[in-house]
Design goal:
elongated, mainly alpha, 44 residues, single chain, 2 helices
């Protein structure tokens, strides 16, 4: 039972990652990550 849940979650996460990549989200996430990092070190 535990193995089935693990496989189901793995498949669901892969589908969601693929959907996000198809929608062009990696660039938006990267831009937000850069902004947060720059704010943490006091540059942005």
């Amino acid at each position: 039972m535990k193995k089935i849940i693990t496989i189901a979650l793995l498949i669901a996460s892969a589908v969601l990652v693929a959907a996000g990549c198809a929608a062009g989200q990696p660039s938006a996430v990267f831009a937000k990550a850069v902004t947060v990092c720059l704010e943490c070190i006091g540059i942005g």
